[in-house]
Amino acid sequence: MNLFRYTYAWFASCFTALLLCFIALYAMGIRTNLIDQTQQQLRTQISLLQYRLESSAKQPDYQSLLQQLPPVSPRGETRLHVLATDQQYSTTSLGRQPQTQSQLLRRLWSPLSLQQTLLGNSTQAVSLTVSVPPDALMPIFWQRVLPGALLGAASYLVAMLISFIALRRKLQPLSQLAQHSVTAKQALPAVNANSHEAQAWLTMITHFNQQLEDIFRRQALDASKLKTQAYQDKVSGLGNRHYFINQLDAWLDNPQQAGLILLKSTLLDEIYQQYGFVTGDSFTRQLADELNSNIVHTQVSLARLSYDEFAVLLPNISSDKLKQIGQAMLEVHQQQEKAHRGDTSDSVFLGLLLIEQASSASHVLGQLDNILAQATRNPGQPLQLADNQHQVPSFGKQQWKSLLLEAIESNTVAYQYQPVINELQQQYHYEVFSSLKAKQAQYNANQFLGAIEDVGAGVLLDKHVIAHHINILNADPAKGPYAINLTTNSITDPAFNRWLDQALTRNQHLSERLHFDIPEACFIRTPDACSLLCSLIRFHKFRFGVDGYGRYFKSLAYLDEFRPDYAKVDYSYTHQLNDELKKQLLSSICRTAHSLNIMTIATRVETETQLERLSDLFVSGFQGFFTEQKLKEQRIGKGHSALLH
Q1: Are the beta carbons of 456 and 489 closer than 8 angstroms?
Q2: How far is residue 469's CA from residue 481's CA, in Å, rounded to a whole number?
Q3: Gap between the Cα atoms of 449 and 401, Å rounded
Q4: Quick check: 545 and 565 in contact, CB under 8 A?
Q5: Does the N terminus or the C terminus of the chain have fewer Cβ atoms within 10 A?
Q6: On the CB side of 486, how many CA atoms lie within 13 Å of its CA?
Q7: Which one is predicted more confidently, 428 or 318?
């Protein structure tokens, strides 16, 4: 019960008690007055009979005298007993009918009766008894009580209405503040504090929200600092060797075609030797910024392996695109060298490796070192590319687009679903993974997504996947919820926003069964476009989450701005839980999301031991092979139970 209902109920109880007391006192007053009037009439009747008996010179006609008396009540009774002759006379009103009086009526109304001996000193002495039954007074009683009772009831209703309006107006600010949750995704509502209490509450909640925001900012800053200490190179601002190997290990656990670039700059060693650490650090930072801004590809992992080496991991890339990025990095270094000392020299070498499968990170880095060594031995060709002879032949970007268009037209896009469960082992949603088929081969999204995003075809894929699953959910209420990954093309395309707005408007009833995964890069690199999309999804009461949470070296403060429903932690944090540093970092970023009531989901959970360890690190959702097996066992158990019954 809220404050308004409690206060209004208290007022209603008081007014009701007052109304009942008023009616009771008013009725008692009417009853007393009516009894007094009746008794006065009875005494008047006795006095009148006594006067007529005394005025009579001869033997009176008692029956005639009784009938001439005015009736006290239509149901009154008068009895006369002649003491000398023991004769009795009585009169009863014509309207009198014997009635059985109830127990309550007998308690509230005792019979009204007066008895008096007249002419007691003469031979004409008589005993006169005049009585009125209680039921004869009830019509008169109700006739007098009802107007007052109705007036009291009307006053009661008016008072209740006035109290309702006054309380509603007075307590509305407090009600608004009470209904507002400090973990809500909406801002504190505008409140007109029209009382000291409301002003006090508003001040308290505002202060409380500020404290929560300060706590969140401190947690986000601590997580960012811990992340920086663990994975970021202090000089360049890029990832360090630990970060790069971690990203490479995560890729090797689910290998697809990818490219690696290793850049070695002898110029850096020269600058550090000649000009010192201040100039060397400044040049390193400037070179790193230029490299980072000139590499155009999705899901890039750029790191500084040593003081003069930079490495890049580029998933889902073709040989031609890898060469283009390598050439761009070479030109960036040459431009920085020319700006520093006015000319260029053979001071930079790049080794490029295109791979499909590898045994370990050390093996891949060993291959990359060998390629770089070849480049350093051949200054005339500072860029060396080595192809893995066992890799699967890749399509060009337009071929991938054509394959996608054919699959959409023929409705042959294949789907796989991986369940996500919460900490109570209950299903949260199924993440949707799309794949394309061509010439008896099947290609998953990791292989073609980068290519179709480069040609702007990601919107076509997202529209098809969303429309397909909306149809599935409408056809079968038992299916879902589904989580659909959105491409960066869709997030930055206003036309897609309009299309999605129309689709969600028509299917508002699916708001609890359709979720959207948005890459973390979009929250950081394109916050304006991402804000429009998130506002649209939130307006229709659908849910969205962050995919690859914690991958980038930016502040995690974007969580407070966008308030996603869940965050899927990047796999690089969850696959080596024996590393104490990674455990601390995972706990820090998950605690940051947990403080905003955002569900954190760990991906690629393979064993129950891994799930138990993650549960202690503010992780509240799990996705991977283990969750699939868990749900299968639950379904099999339910099936067996159904057969037994």
Answers
A1: yes
A2: 10
A3: 10
A4: yes
A5: C
A6: 28
A7: 428
For the stretch 538-563, pLDDT in tens is: 999 999 999 988 877 666 778 888 99
Cβ contact 262:309 at 8 Å:
yes
In one-letter notation, the amino acid at residue 130 is V
DSSP 232: B
Instruction: Kindly report the pTM of this predicted structure.
Output: 0.58
Sequence-separated contacts (24+) of 311-314 with Cβ below 8 Å: 311/244, 311/260, 311/261, 311/262, 311/263, 311/368, 312/259, 312/260, 312/261, 312/263, 313/244, 313/247, 313/248, 313/251, 313/258, 313/259, 313/260, 314/258, 314/259, 314/260, 314/261
- Per DSSP bridges, beta strands 87-92 and 77-82 are antiparallel
**Mean pLDDT along residues 333-350:** 81
Q: For residue 9, which amino acid is it?
A: A
User: CB–CB of 95/75 below 8 Å?
Assistant: yes
Q: What Rg, from alpha-carbon coordinates, does the chain have?
A: 47
| Alpha carbons within 13 A on the beta-carbon side of 420 | 25
Measured distance CA(251)–CA(258) in Å, rounded: 9
CA atoms within 13 A on the CB side of 208: 12
Q: Where are the alpha helices (DSSP H) in 507-623?
A: 520-525, 527-539, 558-562, 580-594, 608-615
Cis preceding linkage at 134, omega within 30: no
The amino acid at residue 119 is L
**Alpha carbon distance 302, 315 (integer Å):** 12
Q: Look over the chain and give the mean of its residue pLDDT values, rounded to a whole number.
A: 80
Distance CA 611, CA 23 (A): 70
SS (H, E, C) 153-189: HHHHHHHHHHHHHHHHHHHHHHHHHHHCCCCCCCCCC
Distance of alpha carbon 603 from alpha carbon 625, whole angstroms: 9
Place of tokens 């929250």: 523
